[in-house]
Structure formats: structure tokens, C-alpha cells
Design brief:
Radius of gyration: 22 Å
Shape: globular
Strand order of the largest sheet: 3-5-6-7-10-11
Structural class: alpha/beta
Strand content: 5-15%
Number of helices: 20
Distance between the termini: 36 Å
Largest sheet: 6 strands, parallel
Amino acid sequence: MTDRYFASDPAQRRIARDIYRAIAALPIVSPHGHIDPRLLADPAATFGSPAELFVMRDHYVLRLLHAQGIPYESLGIPPRQGAVRRGAETETDHRRVWQLFADHQHLLRATPTAAWLAMELADVFGIAESLASANAQAVYDEIEARLATPAFRPRALFERFGIETLCTTDDAADPLEPHRAIRASGWPGDVRPTLRADGLVNLLDPGWRGHLEALGASVGRDIASTSDLLAAVDDRRAYFKAHGAVAIDLGVETAYTGSLEPAEADAILARALRGEASPDDARRFAGHLIIELARMSVDDGLVMQLHVGSLRDHDSALLERFGPDLGADIPVATEFTRNLRPLLEQFGNDPRLRLILFTLDETTYARELAPLAGYYHAVRIGPPWWFFDGLNGISRYLDAVVEIAGLANLAGFNDDARAFCSIPARHELWRRASANWLAGLVTRAIVDEPAAFETAADLAAGLARRTYRLDREGQ
């Protein structure tokens, strides 16, 4: 048991060590993330090469290397079909990708990515030495050899990691075949889908029309009005819930909400179908749908997650050439107090709604999110997300929100992982950061040790279970 991430003060470090020891082996509750369920649907599925596992599927890594001029092609990322070829050829030798990654480890220093990588190599793969240029191929050989064994297949690691529940993120029209296969296989792992509605809400997204058509096909009817759209979403929510879903998810640039009259909503939808929707149309239509999605959550009990403040695909050339989710999403300033008021005036005190708010604008933590969660029964504050899920980001988050909102109004932790083997590393970092933060409260006589131990267990798993209604107490 090391003291990594604990304070240098001996008293705080001792208490942090004891708190962490008490929660280290608690099950992992992962209620929001982006793991491909196909990895767990097939008992024989593998992760591919070490380069695929650690580099090519991790946008945290890709963005930092790109910032220093390393082409995506050199990291093994192929251009989209039909994209014009420019610059470097796509590297197909995964050992070369891995060597390039190892040669540039210094670019990750002091970031959460470096912390997760170190924990993955040491704790998951048993590699004690740090990755560097000189040992890159030897480390590759060790990882490759382990990945070839049954003990390192996804289902085996799911069980080894102690994952209690894992929720994936799935398009609203997804038939959920991998989830059906998992259930049919008899394997006891608890893997649940989550309905993602971004593609339907964002009218100006280039893929919006395709998402709408796919939704219509999934329910067997055309969508020509807002009522058609809402009825189709309602059908899909029931389908997802029947497959174990406990939540929906929505990523939007702003938290704007506001109801529209049916005729007005239909007029905007008609303009969008003709390709004539304006930015104001898109803003107002999204605000209307967010309220309607909240209304549905009141009716069916699905937890509503609202991820706010990311300007997706800031680099349009990257999107055009390689596609989305490769590290070019950038935070924007956000406002919650006025923007969410229409929704909260209707449903904010309804015990049937659970609304989890995530932000990429840290200035909103104490000014807006904590006061909202500290008053409205429906609201919970999501954990620090994306750019703020490192040691310092977690500490800033806890400092900013707990005094105002109270610990019970936090959503607990979710790892938001795309890289499967990073799941235990992300939870370990959160648990160590939480233990250290709580130990600081104990040394200053703000809470006593028994309360700190109880709170640590909540931050590790209890809050997530209750927030996402994964236990009877949260129903």
C-alpha cells in the first residue's frame, strides 16, 4: 500500500492511508462511460494490440500528442473513407505506434493520463518499470503476451476489477444486440445500456437527419412532427429500460431550457427537415426537448444526465478527415441558474426526477451548481469531468461544492471511460483523492474519523448506487 497522492503532512497522510485502505476493495460502480459492449458480449473477445488498447482508442492520449505536432496517422488513426490523403501515411505497424508513444511519454507528465497509465501498467499488467523509449518493445511484448491469455479477456478483467455495474452509452436507435447477447449468455456481469439523445436534440449536427431517420426505422414509423419524435423517444426509452437501462444521457453546449407551443416546435422541426434551421431554432428546439425528456424521466424513472459546456469537434478539419471523439472538443463558458429555471420550476422539486448536472466550466461549481443542488430535490452534481478528473481537479471540485451543496447531493463518481483498463485506475485515483481530502477535514476537526470513513464509502460507491437508483434505497 503506497502513499501516492496523499498529503506530505504526516497526520493527514496517516488518516488518508487508513481511509483509503477501508475503501480500496469496494466494488466499482460505473454508471456512465463509453466502453463498447461488444467487448463483453463475446466471451472470446480481446482488446487487440497494446497500441490499440493504450493509444489508438484513448482521446486523452491522442490530443496531448497531437498538440506537439504528432500526426494522427502516425498514431495509427486512419482517415475516414473518402477523405483526401495528405501528409503522413497511416501507420499500420502497431509496434511503431507504441514506440512513438513511448518516445513521447514526457508529454504526459503530471497529467491524469500519466497517472492512469502508471497504475494500469503496474496494477493490471504487473509491469513495475516506467514506460520509456529504451524498454518500449520489451513492455509491448509483456503486454501482448498477457493479452493473449484468457485471464486478460474483457470478461475476466471485468470480474478481476470488481465491477459491480457497468453502464454503456448507446444511440437512441441502437438495437442493443450486444446487451441482448450478454443477457442470453448467462454470464452474471451487470452491463446496462444508456440512451444517448444528442443526435436527436442538436438540429445543426451534420448527422442529425440520419439519427432521426434511424430513430424512425427503429420504431417502424416516419417522424414528421414533434409529437412523432417524442412518441418515438418514449418507445425507445421503454425498450432501453426493458434491457436494464437506468439512465439517459444528453450532451449539449448550453443548459438552456424553455417550452415551445406545439405549432412552434413543429415549425422549427419542419425547417430543420428542409435544412433551413437557424442557430436560434436549434437552441430553442433543444431547450424544449430537454424539458420533454425531463417530463419523461418523471414518468418512467430513468435518471437524466446533462453534460454541458463542450464545443464538440472544435477542429472541423479533424472531424472531416478522421471523425469525432478524437480529442478536439473544447470547453466553453456556461450558465445554469437562468437557463435551467424553466425546467426546474416544473420538475425541480418532484421526487420522481433525478437530474445529474455535469459541467466543463469550473466557475459554475460554487456559483451555480452547488446552490442548485443544495435546494432542488431533483438535482445532483456530477463528478469532475474530462479536463478536471485529475488529482487537483477532484480536490478543487470537493472544495467548491461540498460546503454549499452537502455531500448527499453529489452523484458520486463515474469514470466516463473509453479505455477499459483505465476503469480501475480512474476509480483508484478518485478514491485516493477523496481519502486525502477527507483526511484534511479530520486533521482540521471539521469532521471526525468515523464520519470520514462513512463518507469515503459513499464517495467510492454508495452515492453512485443511490443516485442512479441501482439499489433499493435509491428506488
